[in-house]
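INFO  loader      accepted 1 record
INFO  loader      residues=148
INFO  predictor   begin
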Amino acid sequence: MGGTDDRSGATPPSPPGRNGPRALCTSEDVNNLAYALCIKGRGDRRVVPRRAQAHDALAELAHRHADSAHALAHARATATPTTVGKEMAVFAHRLSRQLRRIASADYLGKISGATGTFGAHVAAATRRRLARPLASLSSKASVDSGTR
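INFO  predictor   done
INFO  writer      dumping tokens
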């Protein structure tokens, strides 16, 4: 699993399949995916729980102050009377909407490889598959014509 063998000094081979997906990745590919996973992890472990606590506190304030009258003013003009509870409920609702968006977000990354796109890997594999039969045909043709 990576270290050197004490007896011969040679590095033992990795287990089968261990390097498979990484073989075509560049460091940019790895970093791109790591950033997405870090941001998702931070959101899941820190941001969402703290915002959920804030939501719960706002909802509790909304219930506690449902009857507390509050006169709003906007641009130095009085506005429609409201309650503190109603305004806290509006904030709680907006926060819950944002929490749902965060929870349903897709954290995407890209794997382009050193060639630019995955399509280049497909093209290379197709070329190798086509080259084998053509090579056998050309060697067979040279044997048949006696030029080998």
